[in-house]
Specification:
Blueprint (H helix, E strand, L loop, with lengths): L2 E4 L4 E4 L7 E6 L10 H19 L3 E6 L11 H7 L15 H9 L3 H13 L14 H4 L15 H13 L3 E3 L3 E4 L6 H6 L3 H6 L16 E6 L15 E3 L3 H10 L4 E7 L6 H13 L4 E7 L2 E3 L14 H6 L4 H9 L7 E3 L1 H22 L8 H12 L4 H13 L4 H15 L13 H19 L3 H15 L1 E6 L2 E6 L1
Parallel strand pairs: 3-4, 3-9, 9-10, 11-12
Antiparallel strand pairs: 1-2, 5-6, 6-7, 7-8, 13-14
Bound molecules: adenosine monophosphate and zinc ion (ZN).
Length: 490
């Protein structure tokens, strides 16, 4: 029986879908104002493992992941207060620009161009047309499964306006010169979700809030008004403006999943503001709970410190690749920690993960020679128990390694490992082939040249890294002779 940790119930609960055999889930996706960091990718890895686990257990999954391309504003004082002791970077300032607009200024292009650039980089250029993410985007490189629906906030402005109208008609909103607000006093459950009374929240309010007409610090903006410098604007019953950040998730999930749906996921930074706000909107509009299970992933740190652009440790997937690692090394690294525990990245422990994955790949190559056998049911049972225990991937990896170290028949080991890989997603089924295509040859030659250059510059570490990579990824052995370097497939 699958058990998941429900953040707001603060305990593990057995998972029971609304409709037998089916799961409808919603994942708060990225704000596309920059490349995703390895921290963001840890969060995405969490939804991917959840999805793969559900599918492995036989559920049919329908997932929505939104793309925030408008309205993600600077943090409110309440948010800052809620997050001040956490390892989360707060990059926002109070200059009134949203993240997308800031990026547009930074890059000297339009907001729409910023969105397109980072959507392409994250999801891949063709993501709306393909069934799986392609390798030209970070999600494809990480072998993440694609959600069924990936709507952009700007594609659903009408739905957001309709939802705000509905809330207005039911008396949940009020309007100031600056915005239409959700009146949080009308949703008392908010106190319990946030773990603070409305009075306590008031104490945390700073004196310099920009809207003096806002009634309570936790009242949040549904529709932004009076920001003529903002590039993205739409007409609405309240005036020209743009949606607040939380409203898109409520509007999209209602349209694409139906309320209530089964599982809502996101990073732990959403526990105290974004998700309670989504619930306030949806429950008030539809008089039904939004979702039955709320799950959150813990953050990734780098050498124990929060990840931050200003700290120079906001590594991107491209940084990892530049250093000669494979994106799947990062996948394997993430699998080593449970999604609800903090994980700390360092180049040292990341290298160890790569060695671990390298060993697995060698074993799969070795087993492949025996041909595929039967799935070993007792190992499978233990593996299932591990992932059913709130997606315990470290435990699942331990079962995986027990199997590798066992005396079982190699063909059976292979069949079982490839079955487990449906959840782990390490692309172990693609390893066998040693035939080399022309495209691969080009890649290999390029790496050989890079290595030659590194050797000339006496960058021995880099040269070694490239040699290791050639071996691991292409099964290629290099030999250095006086006249240069030769290579062959092992
Ligand atoms: P942001 O770009 O800050 O809007 O973050 C986008 C998503 O990535 C959010 O859902 C966060 O929960 C998640 N996220 C950001 N930083 C980290 C981190 N260091 N570890 C895990 N998840 C993160
Ligand atoms: Zn959301």
């Amino acid at each position: 029986m699958l058990k998941l940790y429900h953040t707001y119930k603060r305990k593990l609960v057995p998972f029971k879908p609304i409709e037998k055999g089916k799961v409808r889930m919603y994942t708060c996706g990225p704000t596309v104002y920059d490349y995703v960091t390895i921290g963001n990718l840890r969060g995405d890895m969490f939804y991917d493992i959840l999805r793969r686990t559900l599918e492995y257990l036989g559920f049919e999954v329908t997932q929505v992941m939104n793309i925030t391309d408008v309205g993600h504003l600077t943090l409110t004082d309440l948010q800052k207060e809620a997050m001040k002791d956490r390892d989360i970077e707060i990059t926002d300032t109070d200059d009134g620009l949203d993240r997308m607009e800031k990026a547009a200024k930074r890059e000297g292009v339009s907001v729409w161009d910023v969105a397109q650039k980072y959507i392409d980089a994250t999801f891949g250029k063709n993501y709306t047309k393909v069934k799986q993410y392609e390798l030209d985007g970070d999600f494809g490189k990480m072998n993440f499964e694609k959600a069924e629906f990936i709507p952009r906030a700007t594609e659903m402005i009408d739905e957001q306006i309709e939802l705000i109208k509905r809330l207005e008609a039911k008396g949940y909103t009020y309007k100031t010169k600056q915005a239409v607000y959700f009146d949080i006093s009308k949703f008392p459950k908010y106190e319990e979700l946030v773990g603070q009374s409305f009075d306590e929240m008031r104490k945390g309010e700073r004196a310099d809030v920009s809207d003096k007409d806002r009634k309570h610090p936790a009242d949040f903006r549904l529709w932004q008004l009076d920001q003529p410098e903002h590039e993205m604007q739409w007409d609405s019953p309240w005036g020209k403006g743009f949606p607040g950040w939380h409203i898109e998730c409520s509007a999209m999930s209602a349209k694409l999943l139906e309320i209530p749906f089964d599982i809502h996921t996101g990073g732990e930074d959403h526990i105290k503001v974004h998700h309670p706000s989504e619930m306030a909107q949806t429950e008030s509009a539809y008089d039904k709970p939004m979702a039955n299970y709320w799950l959150h992933n813990a953050f990734l740190t780098v050498e124990g410190k929060r990840i931050g652009k200003s700290l120079g440790n906001a590594y991107l997937l491209s940084d990892i690749i530049k250093k000669g690692f494979d994106p799947l090394d990062l996948r394997y690294f993430f699998l080593q920690a449970h999604y609800r525990t903090k994980q700390s990245f360092s180049w040292e422990n990341f290298k160890k993960a790569r060695i671990g994955l390298g060993k697995i790949i060698d074993k799969v190559k070795e087993y492949s020679k025996s041909g595929k056998g039967e799935i070993l049911e007792d190992y499978k049972k233990k593996f299932v128990e591990s992932i059913e225990d709130d997606l315990n991937t470290p435990k699942a990896l331990a079962v995986f390694w027990d199997l590798i170290h066992s005396d079982e028949d190699k063909g059976n080991k292979l069949a079982t490992i490839l079955d487990f890989d449906k959840v782990l997603g390490l692309r172990l089924d693609t390893i066998k082939s040693v035939k080399i295509s022309e495209a691969k040859k080009e890649e290999i030659e390029k790496l050989i040249q890079e290595r030659e250059k590194a050797r000339k510059e006496k960058s021995w570490d880099k040269a070694d890294e490239i040699r290791e990579r050639l071996e691991r990824e292409f099964n290629v052995e290099v030999e250095d002779k006086d006249g240069g370097t030769s290579w062959r497939v092992k």
